[in-house]
Write a structure and sequence with these properties.
It is a single chain. This protein is of the alpha/beta class and 249 residues long. It has a single domain, classed as P-loop containing nucleotide triphosphate hydrolases (Rossmann fold, 3-Layer(aba) Sandwich), CATH 3.40.50. Helices cover 34% and strands 25% of the residues. The strands form 2 sheets. A 6-stranded mixed beta sheet has the order 6-7-8-3-9-10, with helices on both faces. The chain has a 4-stranded antiparallel beta sheet with strand order 2-1-4-5, with helices on one face. The radius of gyration is 18 Å and the shape is globular. The structure holds adenosine-5'-triphosphate. Adenosine-5'-triphosphate binds next to β2 and α1. GO terms for molecular function: ATP binding. It comes from Mucilaginibacter litoreus. This is ABC transporter ATP-binding protein.
Length: 249
Protein backbone atom coordinates (compact mmCIF):
# COMPACT_ATOMS: atom_id res chain seq x y z
CA UNK A 1 0.00 0.00 0.00
CA UNK A 2 2.77 2.45 1.00
CA UNK A 3 6.30 1.72 -0.16
CA UNK A 4 9.27 3.93 0.62
CA UNK A 5 12.44 2.86 -1.23
CA UNK A 6 15.88 4.30 -0.58
CA UNK A 7 14.49 7.52 0.90
CA UNK A 8 16.99 10.19 1.90
CA UNK A 9 16.21 13.66 3.14
CA UNK A 10 18.85 16.17 4.24
CA UNK A 11 18.10 19.67 5.48
CA UNK A 12 20.51 22.60 5.05
CA UNK A 13 22.69 20.57 2.68
CA UNK A 14 26.22 21.87 2.37
CA UNK A 15 25.86 24.22 5.36
CA UNK A 16 27.40 23.83 8.81
CA UNK A 17 23.97 22.97 10.22
CA UNK A 18 23.38 20.17 7.67
CA UNK A 19 21.19 17.42 9.11
CA UNK A 20 20.41 14.04 7.60
CA UNK A 21 16.78 13.67 8.71
CA UNK A 22 16.23 10.36 6.87
CA UNK A 23 19.01 7.95 5.91
CA UNK A 24 18.15 5.50 3.15
CA UNK A 25 14.77 4.44 4.52
CA UNK A 26 13.15 1.31 3.07
CA UNK A 27 9.66 0.68 4.43
CA UNK A 28 6.69 -1.29 3.16
CA UNK A 29 3.32 -0.82 4.82
CA UNK A 30 0.58 -3.23 3.77
CA UNK A 31 -3.02 -2.17 3.14
CA UNK A 32 -4.91 -2.08 6.43
CA UNK A 33 -1.78 -2.01 8.55
CA UNK A 34 -1.75 0.39 11.53
CA UNK A 35 1.84 1.45 12.16
CA UNK A 36 2.89 3.30 15.30
CA UNK A 37 6.17 5.24 15.09
CA UNK A 38 8.11 6.22 18.19
CA UNK A 39 11.57 7.74 18.57
CA UNK A 40 13.43 10.49 20.35
CA UNK A 41 13.12 14.15 19.34
CA UNK A 42 14.62 14.82 15.94
CA UNK A 43 14.75 11.16 14.91
CA UNK A 44 12.87 11.82 11.65
CA UNK A 45 9.28 10.80 12.45
CA UNK A 46 7.57 13.98 11.21
CA UNK A 47 9.84 14.17 8.18
CA UNK A 48 8.72 10.66 7.21
CA UNK A 49 5.06 11.66 7.61
CA UNK A 50 5.66 14.86 5.62
CA UNK A 51 7.09 12.81 2.77
CA UNK A 52 4.11 10.46 2.69
CA UNK A 53 1.70 13.42 2.88
CA UNK A 54 3.54 15.16 0.05
CA UNK A 55 4.46 18.45 1.67
CA UNK A 56 8.13 17.49 1.46
CA UNK A 57 9.99 15.76 -1.34
CA UNK A 58 12.84 13.30 -0.81
CA UNK A 59 16.34 14.05 -2.10
CA UNK A 60 16.59 10.44 -3.20
CA UNK A 61 14.30 7.44 -3.40
CA UNK A 62 10.72 6.76 -4.39
CA UNK A 63 7.35 6.70 -2.66
CA UNK A 64 4.50 4.54 -3.91
CA UNK A 65 0.97 4.71 -2.56
CA UNK A 66 -1.60 2.16 -3.72
CA UNK A 67 0.58 1.25 -6.71
CA UNK A 68 1.12 4.86 -7.85
CA UNK A 69 4.50 6.52 -7.83
CA UNK A 70 3.68 9.71 -5.91
CA UNK A 71 7.28 10.83 -5.26
CA UNK A 72 6.83 14.08 -7.20
CA UNK A 73 3.08 14.44 -6.71
CA UNK A 74 2.17 17.58 -4.72
CA UNK A 75 0.21 17.38 -1.49
CA UNK A 76 -3.06 18.65 -2.99
CA UNK A 77 -3.01 15.84 -5.54
CA UNK A 78 -2.66 13.23 -2.79
CA UNK A 79 -5.22 14.71 -0.41
CA UNK A 80 -8.03 12.69 -2.03
CA UNK A 81 -6.66 9.56 -0.39
CA UNK A 82 -4.17 10.77 2.20
CA UNK A 83 -5.59 12.53 5.28
CA UNK A 84 -3.47 14.01 8.03
CA UNK A 85 -4.38 14.93 11.59
CA UNK A 86 -2.05 17.30 13.42
CA UNK A 87 -1.28 17.99 17.10
CA UNK A 88 -3.18 21.22 17.05
CA UNK A 89 -6.96 20.65 16.93
CA UNK A 90 -7.30 24.12 15.38
CA UNK A 91 -5.60 22.95 12.20
CA UNK A 92 -7.70 21.36 9.50
CA UNK A 93 -11.00 23.12 10.22
CA UNK A 94 -12.43 26.62 9.64
CA UNK A 95 -13.23 27.88 13.18
CA UNK A 96 -15.93 30.36 12.29
CA UNK A 97 -17.89 27.93 10.12
CA UNK A 98 -20.41 25.50 11.56
CA UNK A 99 -19.62 21.80 11.92
CA UNK A 100 -21.91 20.91 9.02
CA UNK A 101 -20.26 23.53 6.76
CA UNK A 102 -16.85 22.15 7.67
CA UNK A 103 -18.05 18.70 6.59
CA UNK A 104 -19.38 20.23 3.33
CA UNK A 105 -15.99 21.81 2.65
CA UNK A 106 -14.20 18.53 3.38
CA UNK A 107 -16.56 16.65 1.03
CA UNK A 108 -16.06 19.24 -1.70
CA UNK A 109 -12.30 18.81 -1.39
CA UNK A 110 -12.50 15.13 -2.12
CA UNK A 111 -15.40 15.46 -4.60
CA UNK A 112 -17.07 12.18 -3.82
CA UNK A 113 -19.11 11.09 -6.80
CA UNK A 114 -21.77 9.20 -4.90
CA UNK A 115 -22.52 11.95 -2.44
CA UNK A 116 -24.75 14.94 -3.12
CA UNK A 117 -23.10 17.72 -1.13
CA UNK A 118 -24.55 21.25 -1.43
CA UNK A 119 -27.15 22.25 1.11
CA UNK A 120 -29.17 19.07 0.80
CA UNK A 121 -30.98 17.54 3.76
CA UNK A 122 -29.67 14.20 2.57
CA UNK A 123 -26.06 15.28 3.15
CA UNK A 124 -26.92 16.67 6.59
CA UNK A 125 -28.63 13.43 7.61
CA UNK A 126 -25.67 11.43 6.34
CA UNK A 127 -23.25 13.53 8.41
CA UNK A 128 -25.51 13.59 11.50
CA UNK A 129 -25.75 9.79 11.50
CA UNK A 130 -21.97 9.40 11.39
CA UNK A 131 -21.34 12.03 14.04
CA UNK A 132 -23.91 10.36 16.30
CA UNK A 133 -21.89 7.14 16.00
CA UNK A 134 -19.02 8.92 17.80
CA UNK A 135 -21.23 8.87 20.92
CA UNK A 136 -20.18 12.34 21.98
CA UNK A 137 -23.55 14.09 21.53
CA UNK A 138 -22.08 16.30 18.80
CA UNK A 139 -24.90 15.52 16.37
CA UNK A 140 -26.90 18.22 18.22
CA UNK A 141 -24.25 20.86 17.54
CA UNK A 142 -24.17 20.72 13.74
CA UNK A 143 -24.97 24.42 13.31
CA UNK A 144 -22.58 25.64 16.02
CA UNK A 145 -19.29 27.25 14.87
CA UNK A 146 -16.74 24.44 15.13
CA UNK A 147 -14.33 26.85 16.86
CA UNK A 148 -16.62 26.90 19.91
CA UNK A 149 -16.11 23.15 20.52
CA UNK A 150 -13.41 21.74 22.79
CA UNK A 151 -10.09 20.50 21.42
CA UNK A 152 -11.10 16.86 21.92
CA UNK A 153 -14.49 17.34 20.24
CA UNK A 154 -12.84 19.10 17.34
CA UNK A 155 -10.15 16.48 16.93
CA UNK A 156 -12.80 13.71 16.85
CA UNK A 157 -14.78 15.60 14.18
CA UNK A 158 -11.63 16.33 12.16
CA UNK A 159 -10.84 12.62 12.19
CA UNK A 160 -14.30 11.66 10.99
CA UNK A 161 -14.30 14.42 8.37
CA UNK A 162 -10.96 13.21 7.02
CA UNK A 163 -11.83 9.56 6.64
CA UNK A 164 -15.50 9.68 5.62
CA UNK A 165 -14.96 9.88 1.92
CA UNK A 166 -12.24 8.58 -0.38
CA UNK A 167 -9.40 8.53 2.12
CA UNK A 168 -7.23 5.39 2.17
CA UNK A 169 -4.27 6.51 4.26
CA UNK A 170 -4.58 8.22 7.63
CA UNK A 171 -1.55 10.02 9.07
CA UNK A 172 -1.78 10.87 12.77
CA UNK A 173 0.96 13.24 13.87
CA UNK A 174 0.81 13.30 17.70
CA UNK A 175 -2.95 13.94 17.42
CA UNK A 176 -3.51 13.94 21.18
CA UNK A 177 -0.51 16.02 22.31
CA UNK A 178 -2.71 19.06 23.04
CA UNK A 179 -5.55 17.13 24.71
CA UNK A 180 -6.30 16.23 28.33
CA UNK A 181 -5.84 12.51 29.16
CA UNK A 182 -9.54 11.61 28.87
CA UNK A 183 -10.05 13.40 25.56
CA UNK A 184 -6.78 11.94 24.29
CA UNK A 185 -7.96 8.42 25.09
CA UNK A 186 -11.32 9.05 23.47
CA UNK A 187 -9.78 10.46 20.27
CA UNK A 188 -7.39 7.50 19.91
CA UNK A 189 -10.25 5.04 20.46
CA UNK A 190 -12.27 6.82 17.78
CA UNK A 191 -9.27 6.76 15.44
CA UNK A 192 -8.88 3.03 16.08
CA UNK A 193 -12.56 2.39 15.29
CA UNK A 194 -12.49 4.53 12.14
CA UNK A 195 -9.33 2.80 10.90
CA UNK A 196 -11.07 -0.60 11.19
CA UNK A 197 -14.45 0.62 9.92
CA UNK A 198 -13.06 2.37 6.84
CA UNK A 199 -10.27 -0.23 6.34
CA UNK A 200 -7.59 2.44 6.36
CA UNK A 201 -3.84 2.13 6.30
CA UNK A 202 -2.64 4.30 9.19
CA UNK A 203 0.53 5.74 10.70
CA UNK A 204 0.51 7.17 14.22
CA UNK A 205 3.48 9.18 15.49
CA UNK A 206 3.49 9.39 19.27
CA UNK A 207 5.72 10.01 22.28
CA UNK A 208 3.23 8.21 24.51
CA UNK A 209 4.58 4.70 25.10
CA UNK A 210 1.29 3.49 26.59
CA UNK A 211 -0.47 4.40 23.35
CA UNK A 212 2.36 2.77 21.39
CA UNK A 213 1.67 -0.47 23.27
CA UNK A 214 -2.13 -0.27 23.12
CA UNK A 215 -2.63 0.74 19.50
CA UNK A 216 -1.50 -0.42 16.10
CA UNK A 217 -0.55 -3.73 14.52
CA UNK A 218 3.10 -2.80 14.02
CA UNK A 219 5.61 -0.69 15.96
CA UNK A 220 8.62 1.13 14.53
CA UNK A 221 11.32 2.94 16.46
CA UNK A 222 13.36 5.62 14.68
CA UNK A 223 16.72 7.03 15.70
CA UNK A 224 18.81 9.62 13.87
CA UNK A 225 16.99 9.14 10.59
CA UNK A 226 17.02 5.33 10.65
CA UNK A 227 14.49 2.63 11.47
CA UNK A 228 16.14 0.73 14.33
CA UNK A 229 13.23 -1.49 15.43
CA UNK A 230 10.28 -2.86 13.51
CA UNK A 231 8.00 -5.38 15.22
CA UNK A 232 4.56 -6.76 14.40
CA UNK A 233 2.29 -9.75 14.93
CA UNK A 234 2.43 -11.56 18.27
CA UNK A 235 5.55 -9.66 19.30
CA UNK A 236 3.66 -6.38 18.96
CA UNK A 237 0.54 -7.60 20.73
CA UNK A 238 2.42 -9.03 23.68
CA UNK A 239 4.78 -6.08 24.10
CA UNK A 240 4.85 -4.48 27.56
CA UNK A 241 5.33 -0.81 28.30
CA UNK A 242 8.34 -1.60 30.50
CA UNK A 243 10.07 -3.28 27.54
CA UNK A 244 9.48 -0.17 25.48
CA UNK A 245 11.16 2.06 28.08
CA UNK A 246 14.25 -0.13 27.71
CA UNK A 247 14.36 0.69 23.99
CA UNK A 248 15.16 4.27 24.94
CA UNK A 249 18.00 3.53 27.36
N1 LIG B 1 12.28 22.21 7.60
C1 LIG B 1 13.39 21.85 8.25
N2 LIG B 1 14.52 22.57 8.13
C2 LIG B 1 15.65 22.20 8.76
N3 LIG B 1 15.78 21.12 9.55
C3 LIG B 1 14.67 20.38 9.72
C4 LIG B 1 13.42 20.70 9.09
N4 LIG B 1 12.51 19.77 9.44
C5 LIG B 1 13.13 18.91 10.26
N5 LIG B 1 14.43 19.26 10.44
C6 LIG B 1 15.44 18.55 11.22
O1 LIG B 1 15.42 17.18 10.83
C7 LIG B 1 15.55 16.32 11.95
C8 LIG B 1 14.33 15.40 12.03
O2 LIG B 1 13.22 16.20 12.37
P1 LIG B 1 11.75 15.61 12.58
O3 LIG B 1 10.85 16.76 12.81
O4 LIG B 1 11.44 14.69 11.47
O5 LIG B 1 11.95 14.77 13.92
P2 LIG B 1 10.85 14.10 14.87
O6 LIG B 1 11.30 12.71 15.11
O7 LIG B 1 9.50 14.29 14.29
O8 LIG B 1 11.03 14.99 16.17
P3 LIG B 1 10.00 15.39 17.35
O9 LIG B 1 9.76 14.15 18.14
O10 LIG B 1 10.77 16.40 18.13
O11 LIG B 1 8.77 15.96 16.72
C9 LIG B 1 15.70 17.23 13.17
O12 LIG B 1 17.08 17.38 13.45
C10 LIG B 1 15.11 18.55 12.71
O13 LIG B 1 15.71 19.64 13.37
Amino acid sequence: MITLSGIRKTFNAGKPNQIAALNNIDLQIAAGEYVVIIGSNGSGKSTLLNLVAGNLRPDQGTINIDGNNVTRLPEYNRSKWVARIFQNPLLGTASELSTIDNFRLAALRTQSKGLSIGKTAQFKDYVRERIAALNMGLENKLEQPIGTLSGGQRQALTLLMSVMDTCKVLLLDEPTAALDPRSAENVLKIADELISQYKLTAILVTHNLKDAVNYGSRLIQMDEGNIIKDIRGTEKYTLKQTQLYEWFT
